[in-house]
Amino acid sequence: MDRVFEALFTRRRRMILFMLKQDSPRPIVDFLPRSVGAQSTETELRHDDLPRLASLAYINWNRAADEVSRGQRFDEIEPILELLANHADELPDNWPQQ
């Protein structure tokens, strides 16, 4: 369970996992904002979020292709993602969003 909570700790990691649940593989640009300040976000993505999710085996990060896909343990976290998605309307208004 600690692995799951570590993976879901930040909004960006949750977004990556939810996006991979919908479609895998995905180019890294799919995970970047299209606004000012994207450079710092890209740095955090490449130096924190992607390596951490890869070390947990929830994603595979192909650096050469700049592509991310579901990892060997993705099926471990997928039920939690399903639960969050299916019951989002039942959560309190101030509950952290995806």
UniProtKB/TrEMBL annotation:
Q: Could you identify this protein by its name?
A: ArsR family transcriptional regulator
What organism, scientifically named, is this protein from? Haloarcula argentinensis
